[in-house]
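Record 1 of the preview.
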Amino acid sequence: MSWEYLGYLASALLVASLTMSDVVKLRWFNLFGCIAFTIYGFAIGSIPVAFTNGLLTFVNIYHIVKLKRQQKTDAD
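->
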């Protein structure tokens, strides 16, 4: 597999995330894009790409958990 394709997939996921009007969907697409870019960054030996997107992965996870908890609280 060419790592370049993973980079394109990651880019497509991030672009798609920015078209979402639903914030939860935005975060999920962005999360998968960041995970793909983290793997891509390590694969091509680009630590800044891997590190930045690795951190953004955790930011997205934090916000997804926060949004899900808020939705649960609002439903009660």
